[in-house]
Amino acid sequence: MSWLDQVDAGLLEGAIRIVRALREAGHQAYFAGGAVRDFLLSRPVSDIDIATSAEPREIESLFPTTLPVGRQFGVIVVVEGPHQFEVATFRRDLGYTDGRHPAAVAFSNAVEDARRRDFTINGLFYDPETESVIDYVDGQEDLKRRIIRTVGDAETRFAEDKLRMMRAIRFACELDFAIEPSTYRELVAQGGKIIQVSSERIRDELLKILTGRAPARGLELLLDSGLLAVVLPEVAAMAGVPQPPEFHPEGDVFVHTCLMFRRAGARTPELAMGILLHDVGKPPTFKIAERIRFDGHAEVGAKMADTICRRLRLPNDTLHEVVDLVRDHLRFMHVREMRESTLKRFLRKENFRDHLELHRLDCLASHGDLTNYEFCVRKLAEFSQSRARPALLEDPRCAGRRSTGGKDHLPGRGDGVASTDLAGRALSRGSLRKSACRAPPGRGTPIQTGRDSLNFSYLGTNRPFTRE
Questions:
Q1: Which of 84, 91, 382, 395 has the largest CB neighbor count within 10 A?
Q2: What dihedral angle (degrees, nearest 10) is formed by the CA atoms of 183, 186, 192, 197?
Q3: 384 falls in which pLDDT band (50, 70, 90)?
Q4: Contacts of residue 425, Cβ cutoff 8 Å, sequence gap at least 6
C-alpha cells in the first residue's frame, strides 16, 4: 500500500517537506486525522493535515507563507505551492461553553491530542519517514471492525460539540460502518440537543449526507435516532403516512423518498433537496375519500420547502430551484396533453434536467411507469433536431450524469446508486456554483432512456456541489 496510489504526488511531497522542516527544527510532526484514516482504508486522500509539537509562532517562523486561520486553537495553514496544509499544535481542550469550540486550549503532546478527537478512526497519526501508524486510541482496531466509536466517553464527546452526532451518522454512511452500540445509545439520548447547533452547520452536514454515498441509510439513521424529528420535523412526519397502493406499492411517503435516493446517481444539493422535499406536503394534505388522496400537496409542499430552505439558510438560488422542483413535480402527469407551446415552455425551464431526473426517480420508486419521462426525452430530441428553438444552455447539469463511452448521460432505467463525493468545499466558498462543469459550446448532451441515447442541445443550468 502506497500513499502515491491514493494522493496527488504534489500534495504528498508538500506534506513531507513540512514534516521534515518541523523535525529538522527539533519538533515532532505527523500526518493526522482523516488522511490517515482514508489511507488505511485505501480511499482517495484529498488533503493532509499535520499535527506537531511546534507552537503557532514557531510554525510561522519556519515557513514563508502562512495563514493564521485558527491561531487561538493552535492551527496555522502553511502554503506550499498550490496546496494548503493545516498544521496544528498538539493540544488538549479546556472545556466547551458554546457546544462547538473549546473555551481554551493548552498545548500538549501527541497522546493528549489524539484523546481529544471525536472518533477513534480520526485519532490516528502517521510517520511518513518510518511509514508507521501511531495509534493511542485503538483506531486501527475500529477500522478493522468497521465501527464508528467516540474517543473515550461518548457523553462527553457529544456534549463538547453536538454536531458530532450528525457526523457519526455521516461517517457511518460514507464508510459503510456501523455505529458502536454505546456511542449510538448516547447519540439517541442527546439527540434533542442538536437544536443548539447553528442552522448553517446542520445544513452543511445534512447536504454531505444527502449528496454522499448512502443518503437513504443516512435518512433512516437520522429518523431512528430522533435527530430528524429535531432537524427536519416536516420530513420525519412523512414516516408512517400511507399512500394508495395502486400508485405506491412500495409503502409510505418516507419509504418512497428513501427508495428514490437509492435509485439516484450523483446529486447536486438542489436535486438532493428536491428529492427529500418533493412529497413533504403529503402529511398535511392526507385524506381518505374514494381512496387515499393528497390534494394540493405539490403547492403546499412548495411553501413548506421554502420555509425549510430558509431555516437551513440555503443560498437563494438553491432555495428557488428546490421550491420550483417541489411545486412542478406533478406537471409530468400532463405533458402528453399539453399544447406544444406549453410543453416547450416547460422543457425550456432553466433547471429542467433536474425536473426530468426527479420525475424519473419518482416513477422508479413507485409504479415504475416511465412513459411520460420517455415522452419528454423524445420531445427534447425532436425540438433539438428541428431547431424549433435555439440552444439555450452550454452548461448542462452535472446532477445525475454518468460517463458512458466518453460521453455524459442521464441515468436510464435500472441504474443504481452511484458513489459520489459532492459536499463541503463549495459552501465554504459561499457558493454552490462551479463553472468548471460546463460543456463545450454547441455540443448536445445525450439522455439515456434505457434503450438508446438521444442528443439535444439544451437543458438546465448547472450548480454542482463538492464536499470537503
A1: 91
A2: -50
A3: confident
A4: 466, 467, 468
